[in-house]
Amino acid sequence: MRVAIAGAGAVGRSIAGELLENGHEILLIDKAPTAISVERVPHAEWLLADACEITSLDEAALQRCNVVIAATGDDKVNLVVSLLAKTEYGVPRVVARVNNPKNEWLFNESWGVDVAVSTPRLMSALVEEAVSVGDLVRLLRFSHGDANLVELTLPEESALAGTQVGDVEWPEDTSLVTIIRGTRVLTPSREDSLEAGDELLFVAAQAREEQLEDLLSVRREDAAS
Predict the structure, then answer these.
(1) What pLDDT, in 10s, does the model give residues 112-170?
(2) Region 73-101: what's the mean pLDDT?
(3) What is the mean pLDDT of the chain?
(4) Phi/psi of residue 169, each to 5°?
(5) Chain segment 63-76, per-residue pLDDT in tens
(6) Helices marked H in the chain — which ranges?
(7) 86 by DSSP, 3-state: which?
(8) Could you tell me which of 112, 114, 194, 208 has the C-alpha nearest to residue 158?
(9) Coiled-coil intervals in this record (predicted)?
């Protein structure tokens, strides 16, 4: 898979290194000569250019890319790169870094963004995930379909503890994708039972999040009454 990364700072280089280890073809783009550090990621292609310029993206042959990652420290640049990648070059998947959570609402399909990753929000979500039981924590937002990756740790008193996955009437536009139980990562089947303390990961429409949280957090005595 060919991946272009706009922004060759610490974040962009780190992403490039991970993807190279997984066998992908990587192009790093940055307009700052000081950011061009070929020796740090020697197996990547490098391009000294402004990723907001059509001529630069033509030189990068963006139409050949399967994924574009807008990873600069400037939200305005990331939005422009995302929009150009999607509308001018038809890149199938565009991932954009959100530096300021206040700008997160802009990072949607109108700007060509398929997945928006807000590092500050993700860090705060991971803190919440570590200390919250019974509360829904949003980990990642997918622009297409207005869906989010959300997590909830099933509380001891949940009415669903001991219930088989196939017997639960999940809200519409909601999919249970993973159960983390201790050190195990389970792909849920209809016969798997939910246990108190399970970390449940869902892809869910934003409009269904409150309904999902209510379903998972309801107490046994409330369900019985």
Answers:
(1) 999 888 866 665 555 554 445 667 877 777 765 578 888 888 988 888 999 999 999 99
(2) 96
(3) 88
(4) -90, 90
(5) 999 999 999 999 99
(6) 10-21, 54-59, 75-87, 119-131, 209-217, 220-224
(7) helix
(8) 194
(9) none
The one-letter code for the residue type at 126 is L
Helix (H, G, I), strand (E, B) or coil at 184: strand
Task: Name the amino acid, one letter, at 220.
Answer: R
Contact call for residues 61 and 16 (beta carbons, < 8 A) = no
Strand order in the sheet with 25-30: 45-48, 25-30, 2-6, 67-70, 93-98, 115-118, 137-142, 147-153, 199-205, 174-181, 184-186
The CA-based dihedral angle spanning residues 129, 183, 14, 54, taken in that order and rounded to the nearest 10 degrees = -70
Residue 145 CA: distances (Å) to CA of 68, 150, 207: 20, 15, 11
Please tell me the distance from the alpha carbon of residue 61 to that of residue 3, in angstroms, as a whole number: 11
**Which amino acid type is present at position 88?**
E
Record the tokens describing residue 88, joined without a space: 């001018």
Please work out, in degrees rounded to the nearest 5, the angle formed at the alpha carbon of residue 17 by the alpha carbons of 14 and 23.
Answer: 145
Structure tokens, 102: 């206040």
Q: 154-191 in b/e burial notation, b at 16+ Cβ within 10 A?
A: bbeebbbbeeebeeeebbebbebebbeeeeeeeebeee
Find out whether 142 and 115 touch, Cβ atoms under 8 Å: yes
Residue 183 CA, distance from chain mean position: 22
Residue 194, SS3 per DSSP: coil
pLDDT of 174: 93
Q: CA-CA distance, 45 to 41, in Å (whole number)?
A: 9
Task: Say if CB 143 and CB 115 are below 8 A apart.
Answer: yes
Enclosing H/E stretch for 145? none
